Amino acid sequence: MSEPRPRTVPELAGDAIRETQELVSTEIRLLRAEMAESLQHLMLALGLFIAAGVFVLTALLVWIFALVKALAVLLQSDALAALVVGGVFAVIAVALALFGRSKASLSGLEPTRTERQVRQDAAIITERMGE
User: Which helix (H) or strand (E) holds 120?
Assistant: First the structure.
């Protein structure tokens, strides 16, 4: 049996490059497969959240209808009960909208801390340039 001949540096470098390319392409295939699987899980979760939202909205509407019916028994009028419940929900909606509008002022979007920091940085740079 003869011993295998020693490999040259270019052969070893070529093998290293080829194996590195194979490793990178295998890792990329694995990454793609994992991302596709993760995206499928994310889409399933999103679908389930949407379905849950539909059921919550349906339950809320049924509860509101039950509230109207219960109030109708007390007031002896379906129309009056619907007006009372609708009015209460309208007041709640207006209050939430006004509160949201007050929190969404354009002045709240101004980056005041960043502006202050930039001014301080500019002052420090100007001071050091003068030295």
Answer: helix 112-130
Q: How far apart are CA 98 and CA 14, in angstroms?
A: 70
CA atoms of 45 and 61, how far apart (whole Å): 24
Residues ≥6 apart with Cβ < 8 Å to 78: 68, 69, 72
**Lookup result for tokens 């609708």:** 86
pTM for this model (two decimals): 0.54
| H/E element, 100 | helix 78-103
CA 90 to chain centre: 30
Sign of CA dihedral 13, 18, 22, 28: positive
Q: What is the pLDDT of residues 72-84, one digit of tens each?
A: 999 999 999 999 9
H or E, element range at 18: helix 9-75
The domain locations on the chain are: 9-76
